[in-house]
Amino acid sequence: MIAIILSACMTADPNVCRDYKIPIDADIDAMTCMVQAPPHFARWAEEHPGWQVRRWRCGSASEEKI
User: Fold this and answer.
1) Residue 61 main-chain phi, psi, to 5 deg
2) I need a labelling partner for 46 at 20 to 30 A (CA). Which of 11, 22, 26, 55 fits?
């Protein structure tokens, strides 16, 4: 299973950043994830006002280092 892993920083304090994992419920490969990711992290940004997505990538949903 694959997930979108994004790094977001607080809008009010750009020095405060965190990583978040958005699991994707489909059995897809990394390339498909890259194509399908933007609507997922855009929705995340709408649901988390005050945070700005700085970067993102696709990775394993079981990846521990987040």
Assistant:
1) -65, -20
2) 26
